[in-house]
Design goal:
The chain is built from 14 helices and 35 strands. By secondary structure, the chain is of the alpha/beta class. The longest helix has 17 residues, at 254-270. Mean pLDDT is 94; it is low at 495-507. This is Zinc-binding domain-containing protein.
């Protein structure tokens, strides 16, 4: 089968459907037959727009106070007050006090399917938060097996963690995809770290401060690209005694010392080769942060995946395309969010289920089409029960009807069978969802593209401590700070331009970051900063989160060539020290690759062979 170039009906840019894509659509069409969803047509949205569309139905971080629609208790919810559907707290949602089948509907052949689904969505109760097996984690969402955590999202098996997305970790604050870590702060894409601060892409190390791509290291400050080293500062070796003296000098200066390390570290980081992509023990893959996988194309942050394409944040997936935030999946397509699901298409957060299509928040079920909130059910359409024979006869007719009478949104985008939920069916405003993290839009842009937008609630607090008035050193912070309302540096109009720029860092503007303008320090957080001798943050949790995201490469690939020019890097900043079997001595490497480093980025990017010769 040949590749085919189409024009995305959303962004109007051309995109290519590869032979492997067509083969996948044929394969999943055959799984379960017509009763499970029929023949899957090729997409009309490009991969990026498909991703944006899926992410726009998931809100992790925006939480609200509201009332449970069943028990009437005050709860924390990812749904703001005023949404048309009822919202239940977790105990009520999982109880037998209500029956989602009572909201069932007969299929209406006079209306497009998606209009009927929207009507069902507006009637059926939704869970306030997605949490499982937690204790003292009231302000966490998409969260399982945790205790004593606060404002953690998309996390599993964590203890005493604050503000971030840790996995299997404890006593970590402000992390993103940090796995099996403890006592870590502002760490990104790290694994098996201890007592480390401001580390990125580091593993199996301890006592790191501002390090990048360091493995098996201990007691390093401002280093990049090191392996199995101790007592290094800015990639230079020190004796243990000299190292400890220098370390204490930095820490004694509080926030000033950390800023000095950060400034010098950026120079070190830019002067060493960067791996074109973090791909470990994998074959035939493209993307970034891919581990123990094979035949994975344009995938990011995946582990143990096989025969997958356009997937992000997935573990143990096989024969899966266009799927995010999942574990233990097979034969799934255009799906977001949960685990142990197979043969499921165009659905959202359905766990331990199979043979679903266009379903939402269903669990322990099979053979559902257009259902919401069902548990342990089979052969249902729009939450109505059918016999197996009735279901198998009706689903192909509905699919044909979806193609004959497609849904057309206000922007003229057509949604027939084979498309994920239309943009205007999302239960959230665009800036509430994780789509805003990866595809940030202003309010004007979002509304122009057909999304909803939620303006910030009026805040009735009074800032009592501007960020510039915070003590430089944690030793000068008293317990009184717990009573202060601290102004976020990014929203402070009184800071001089230079100072504001230094504090605001690389994050987006106020509108796209959802800056809360102010924040408080909680007791466990203050204890953590004192334990690590860390200065207080100057930004609110939302702005800190967006600054972490800004340090990661985008979920996009560019075709580039290796920067190794033989004796040195192309920009002559780095001098090679190793032997490069991939090319003749003194000759420019001819290797090309797909990388998430954009062509206009300043980093020195080496192919796998040249990188291994220099760094590993």
């Amino acid at each position: 089968m040949n590749s085919e170039t189409k024009t995305c009906q959303n962004c109007k840019n051309p995109f290519t459907i590869e032979p492997d894509d067509f083969a996948f659509y044929e394969k999943i069409s055959a799984q379960g037959g017509s009763a499970s969803g029929g023949k899957v047509p090729p997409p009309t949205f490009c991969p990026e727009c498909r991703l944006q569309r899926r992410l726009a139905v998931r809100n992790e971080r925006n939480l609200y106070h509201r009332e449970c629609g069943l028990c009437k208790k005050s709860i924390i919810s990812m749904y703001a007050p005023g949404e048309p559907f009822p919202v239940y707290c977790s105990p009520c949602w999982w109880s037998d006090k209500w029956d989602p089948m009572q909201y069932r509907a007969d299929y209406d052949w006079e209306q497009p399917f998606f209009r009927q689904f929207r009507s069902l969505l507006e009637r059926t109760p939704r869970p306030a938060l997605i949490v499982s097996n937690v204790r003292d984690c009231d302000y966490c969402n998409y969260f399982a097996d945790g205790k004593e955590c606060y404002l953690c999202f998309g996390s599993i098996a964590v203890e005493s963690c604050l503000y971030g997305s840790p996995y299997e970790s404890r006593y970590c604050v402000d992390t993103y995809l940090a796995r099996e870590c403890e006592y870590c702060y502002e760490c990104i894409d790290c694994e098996k770290l201890s007592n480390s601060f401001y580390a990125q892409d580091c593993s199996n190390s301890l006592n790191l401060i501002y390090c990048f791509d360091c493995k098996g290291c201990q007691d390093c400050i401002g280093c990049a690209g090191l392996r199995n080293k101790k007592y290094h500062i800015f990639n230079k070796p020190y004796s243990k005694e000299e190292y400890m003296i220098q370390r204490e000098k930095f820490l004694a200066d509080g926030a000033g010392g950390f800023n000095e390390i950060k400034r010098k570290f950026q120079t070190v980081k830019s002067a060493v080769p960067h791996r074109f992509s973090t791909i470990l023990q994998s074959s035939a893959v493209t993307g970034d942060h891919i581990i123990h996988s094979k035949n994975a194309r344009q995938c990011f942050d995946v582990k143990r995946c096989e025969d997958t394409s356009y997937c992000i944040r997935m573990i143990d997936g096989k024969e899966v395309h266009d799927t995010n935030y999942c574990e233990f999946m097979e034969f799934c397509y255009e799906y977001i969010g949960f685990w142990k699901t197979s043969r499921t298409k165009f659905s959202n957060t359905c766990g331990e289920s199979n043979d679903l299509a266009y379903s939402d928040f269903c669990s322990g079920s099979s053979n559902l089409f257009g259902c919401i909130g069902l548990r342990s059910k089979s052969y249902c359409i729009l939450n109505k029960q059918y016999t197996k024979e009735e279901y198998e006869a009706l689903v192909p007719k509905i699919i044909a009807h979806m193609n004959e009478v497609p849904y057309v949104d206000a922007k003229g985008r057509t949604y027939a069978y084979g498309e994920f939920f239309p943009i205007d069916l999302s239960p959230f405003a665009y800036n509430e969802t994780i789509a805003q993290e990866y595809f940030p839009l202003t309010k004007e842009e979002a509304l122009t593209q057909g999304y909803r937008w939620r303006d910030p609630d009026t805040r009735n607090y009074q800032i009592t401590k501007p960020s510039q008035a915070l003590p430089n050193h944690i030793k000068d912070v008293s317990d009184d700070i717990l009573n202060e309302v601290i102004g976020c540096a990014r929203s402070n109009p009184d800071l001089p331009a230079g100072k504001a720029g230094a504090l605001r860092g690389r994050g987006p503007d106020l509108e796209t970051s959802g800056c809360t303008t102010a924040f408080k320090i909680i007791p466990s957080e203050l204890a953590f900063y004192r334990h690590g001798n860390l200065p207080l943050p100057r930004l609110c949790p939302n702005c800190r989160h967006y600054e972490r995201l800004a340090q990661r490469n985008p979920l996009k690939l560019w075709h580039r060539a290796c920067h190794c020019a033989g004796e040195k890097s192309e920009n002559s900043v780095y001098t090679n020290t190793g032997t490069h079997p991939s090319h003749a001595k003194g000759k420019h490497c001819s290797n090309e690759f797909e990388t998430s480093y954009a062509p206009d980025r300043p980093e020195i990017v080496y192919c796998e062979q040249c990188y291994q010769s220099e760094v590993a």
